[in-house]
Specification:
Distance between the termini: 16 Å
Largest sheet: 5 strands, antiparallel
Radius of gyration: 14 Å
Helix content: 25-40%
Structural class: alpha+beta
Strand content: 25-35%
């Protein structure tokens, strides 16, 4: 899939997901691997849901700020910000794109420690 070429991906696990409050204080970088990103895009396409309107993260670009900051985050460079569950992403733990570098190994180790129903926003940038 051409879409993943040239994009970075940061995973934003929800630290809080309550009515009226949803946020992530965690940003997990993914090392760019086209085949892995294509599979994540497929999971997003089939399982992805829009983040709540009040979702806050460290990657906000809302307001008059030039730099990212903690604030409302509802869009990424490819459109509305979507989330999937950590359980769905964990299915990729044995993917070559995860296991061929330490950054992705560490990210998936973190994901595997989360509760399976933890929401994880997919920030494409």
């Amino acid at each position: 899939m051409i879409l993943a070429v040239g994009l970075d991906l940061t995973l934003l696990p929800f630290d809080c997901s309550l009515p009226g409050i949803s946020n992530s204080f965690t940003a997990l970088m993914c090392f760019r691997r086209e085949e892995l990103f294509d599979e994540i895009l497929q999971i997003e396409k089939h399982e992805g849901r829009d983040v709540p309107e009040n979702f806050n993260s460290l990657l906000s670009r809302e307001g008059n700020y030039e730099e990212t900051h903690f604030g409302i985050t509802t869009k990424s460079k490819i459109g509305p910000l979507k989330y999937v569950t950590s359980e769905k992403l964990a299915t990729l733990v044995n993917h070559e794109g995860v296991n061929d570098n330490p950054i992705n190994k560490a990210t998936w180790s973190y994901l595997n420690e989360l509760e399976p129903n933890t929401k994880v926003a997919l920030y494409w940038g």
